[in-house]
Amino acid sequence: MDFLFISIVEYVGILCGLLSLFRFQLRYYIPQIIFASVACSFLSHALSLKYQVSYAPIVQLVVLILFLWLLFQIAFFYSALMALSYTVAYVTIQGGVIWVINGFFPEGKDFSITGTTTYEVQITFAVINFLLAWYLQKRYIGYTFVPTSMRSHLKWNRINRYLALMVVATFVTLAATYMLYTYTHFQWFILAIVPLILSTFAIFHLLKRRERLHD
Question: What is the pLDDT of residues 119-130, one digit of tens each?
Fold first, then answer.
């Protein structure tokens, strides 16, 4: 029960932060946010705890993209772009924090999937997501180029082609990182965090360039 509750809270926070970053008004998406968070949390519980699937985070990421596409009615390209850009930044920062905690305070820290320290980190980052969402909504900060309709026409200009390639590269990087962590935990973490940092800077650089265009 603790796993499900904390997972739901974290997913709600992630979706609030993600949507706010791309200037979506949260008040119009509350039912979708709650449904997607509950569904993703139950999926996470089934894959990670019941069946212990090693690639569970990758499946959850794909499902999150599908929810943004079908449930939030955002075009598939932008759904993938939104989910992957926010996820890679989130995983990079959260992973870095966990690595630091594990390095400086190795004793008495339980980083298992149902560990106390893991729960504490999840709740902390959920709160950070909520605060970020509140700040972005209040200050009207974020990217405005993502259309709110699936029927919007996507122009395959140079920057959008770069973004599409970056989406694929980021997905591969995240998948490789998750698998590396699954089999080695923190032993080769530094090799995983470097590509994540590079992917984060690259994709947000392209997002900034895309925002400057007025199609």
Answer: 999 999 999 999
